[in-house]
Every structure is written in C-alpha cells, then in structure tokens.
Specification:
The complex is a heterodimer. Chain A is mainly alpha-helical. Chain A is built from five helices and two strands, in the order βαβαααα. The longest helix of chain A is centred in the C-terminal third of the chain and has 12 residues, at 137-148. The chains are: A mainly alpha, B mainly alpha.
C-alpha cells in the first residue's frame, strides 16, 4: 500500500448525500497524507489530552478499550485484538498517530482497526450513521493529544 | 441431570405434561465439543455459563422446549392436523434432522432453515398460520426439533443447488460492512481467542442454536445473533428469515460441520 501524498478532496461531495439527519454529518476536513503521517491538525489547533482520554474510553466514541490495553486502570476488561497502547507515544510521532486514527487502512489495508474519520468506501452503514464519522475532527485531535502523552 | 428428569421437574410445578419425549444424549460431565481445530462456543464460555448448559434442569431453554413439545401434538389449522399426525414421535422422526439444515427444499428448490421448514409445514400441510420469527412458539419448536439431534455431528451439504447459496453466504461472511468496517471473519476467524473488551471471541459456530443468551434473558435464533453482530459494527442488519441470512446460515453451519449439535445452548 502506497501511503505518500494522498489527498482526500472529493470526499466532501460524497458527504452532502445523507446529511439530512444533521448532527455529525458535517463536511470532512481535507488532509494530506505524507510519509505515513498527517502532519497538520485537523482543526488547526492542539487537542486537549484530558478530553481525549475520556473520548478514547467512551463506548460510543473511541471505544479503544474494545481492542486495546491502555493505561486506564479504573476500567475493567481491556481487549487485546490490537497492541498495548501504554507506550505508543514513544513509538510514533504525532502525525503518525493522527493517520492511524483517521484511517489506519492507509497503513495496513487489512487491519481490523476501524477508520475513525472516514465516510467513503463503507458498505451497509446503518441509516443513522450514514455520512458520519465515528469521531469528529476535534475528538480526533483530543485523542491524538492524549496518545502523545503515553510514554 | 438428564433432560427427561429435569424437564419433569421444571414442568411438574408449572403445567401437567402428558408425555415427555425421550430426548437425545444429555450433556455429560467433562463435556467436550471439539473436532480437529474446531471448538464449539461452549469452550469459550465461562465455567459458570457452561454449568447452566450442562444441567438441563438449570438450562432455561427447556421452558421453550417444553412448549415446543406440547405444540408437536397440538392440532392447529384448517387441515385438522398436528406435527405428530404426519411425523409421529419426534424422538424417532426428527432424530438427525436438525443437523442437516439449512438445506434445499425439494418443492420450491430454495434454501430453507429449520424455522422455515416448520412454517412451511404449518402453511402447506396444516393450513395453519406461520409462526412469527422469534415468537415463543417458533423458538420452542425449533429448539425441540434440534434437541432430537443433540450430540450428533452437524452435517450440512453444500452440493448441487445449495452451492450458490453457500458462495453467497461466504461472500457475506468475508465482506467488511458497517461504520466500523468489519467482517464476520475479522472477528471470528482472524481474532478468535482474543478479547473484545469483556468478550472472548469464539469461532462463531452455529451448533448451539437456538441459544439461551443471558444478555437476552430469552432463547434466541441464529438470525437474531446475526442481527446483533451486524448492529455491533453499526451495519444495517437484514431481516431474520431473509435470504441473505439463510445463505449466511448455510455458510456458518457448514463451517460448524463435525461439531456436535448442542441445541439449546447457553451463552453469555
């Protein structure tokens, strides 16, 4: 899989369909993938790590514990479908973490990990979720900011 | 405890039942259901859940089984017949039957599962109203029929006219879907044995259905399970009894071939 310089401009048009239900179906922020990373913040701002931690745990948001062990001792039952995220901030740059969250399939086509900021190329999405992303751009940034602290 | 004594005990306090079918092999101590590298969902259950299934007296499914058994000989519909009118004692006529469905219905040439077979008998042979999917009657009768094959190996055929359905089911199984963009195989083949939060992923075999799920507090069909697994990944589910799910059932059940029928099982 090539992961250099893919621009996702067209997605915006696709999104306008199915935006009837309103909330969450906003236009996708454009971003550029370069060298396995998205260097720029999707919101142009730094995320809030404390909010990111909450969104990562929340079952209707990141629900990352479904698949990952994380340094979140107050929560029971961490999944082990993906790697332990305890030191993930040491392994990857902020931009690499952002791409993994936005669309991990750009790195490994076959991964089980959902793309948290993508609406294109999905099959039979439930009506109420059509055209929406799992996480909003600012939630992505909050979680990225949190992951960076995991060292 | 065996089914016979357990059911007698359960039913004793509730309804006076005439005859109890001499049911198939009871679950035995040190129960094992593995063949080659296949392991029944039973082996992914906690000991506490297993023990509810191990003992027919504790297994709440038997409340539905008892209802199915009563309905077996109850005349219904314009033709004035019951199941027993055509099939006599279920212990004999239904032995092994549940292990071979879904299969091609000779009359229509279509793939049908047990629930659909039961309803086609009601409609065509009894001139009675088909039972609703997930109704206590249909669940009870399905469980009662499948129980007659308990302990026998699952043995569905994918030859001849069944083949295209099998291929359709296989495509469904391997296709990513939903907002989470996951396939059945992503969880039940590639990640079986791993934890998704508090759930240990099994191979998703069908040999225990209908199953009493503690989460449902009720007996439930395989198609209900399919709907649940679809909804969990935010995929638009299909209707229970749809052609899509019946084809998927054939694929999943063919994967389960060789495992012992465990219906009615107990799962979390």
């Amino acid at each position: 899989m090539r992961n250099s310089a893919l621009t996702f401009g067209l997605i915006v048009c696709v999104l306008l369909v199915g935006s009837l239900t309103g909330a969450g179906a906003a236009e996708l922020v454009k971003y550029t993938v370069k060298d396995g990373a998205i260097a720029q913040s999707l919101t142009g701002k730094k995320g809030n790590p404390a909010k990111g931690r909450k969104a990562a745990i929340h079952r209707k948001k990141g629900n990352c514990l479904a698949c990952h062990k994380m340094p979140v001792p107050e929560q029971l039952f961490h999944g082990n479908v993906g790697p332990d995220l305890a030191k993930v901030g040491e392994r990857y740059s902020e931009g690499e973490l952002r791409l993994r969250l936005v669309n991990s399939k750009a790195i490994n086509e076959d991964t089980t990990m959902p793309a948290f900021y993508r609406t294109a190329g999905l099959h039979r999405v439930m009506k109420q979720w059509k055209g929406k992303t799992i996480l909003s751009a600012s939630e992505v940034e909050d979680i990225v900011a949190y992951l960076v602290t995991l060292r | 405890m065996t089914y016979k004594s357990a059911a007698a005990y359960v039913v004793g306090g509730l309804v006076a039942l005439g005859m109890l079918a001499s049911a198939s092999a009871p679950m035995a101590e040190g129960y094992e259901n593995m063949v080659g590298d296949k392991k029944s969902g039973y082996h992914y259950s906690t000991p506490a859940t297993q023990s509810i299934q191990d003992d027919d007296f504790n297994n709440p499914s038997f409340l539905w089984v008892d209802q199915g058994e009563q309905l077996w000989s109850k005349v219904d519909g314009k033709a004035g017949k019951s199941c027993a009118t055509c099939h006599d004692a279920a212990a004999k006529s239904m032995k092994g039957v549940g292990a071979t469905y879904p299969k091609i219905d000779a009359k229509s040439g279509k793939l049908i599962n047990i629930e659909q077979r039961i309803n086609s008998c009601r409609k065509n042979n009894m001139q009675a109203k088909p039972w609703k999917w997930e109704s206590n009657q249909l669940l009870g009768m399905t469980a009662f029929v499948k129980l007659q094959s308990r302990g026998m190996p699952v043995n569905v055929s994918i030859d001849g006219a069944a083949k295209p359905y099998y291929e359709k089911g296989k495509n469904f199984y391997n296709q990513r879907r939903g907002m989470l963009d996951m396939s059945c195989s992503g969880c039940h083949v590639e990640n079986a044995g791993k934890m998704v939060r508090a759930d240990l992923l099994s191979n998703g075999f069908s040999n225990g259905f209908p199953t009493y799920r503690l989460k449902w507090q009720k007996l439930g069909s395989l198609h209900r399970r399919f709907r649940g697994c679809n909804k969990n990944i935010r995929a638009q589910p299909y209707k229970a009894g749809s052609d899509e799910y019946t084809a998927l059932e054939l694929f999943v059940t063919h994967r389960s071939n060789g495992l012992k029928v465990e219906s009615p099982s107990v799962r979390r």
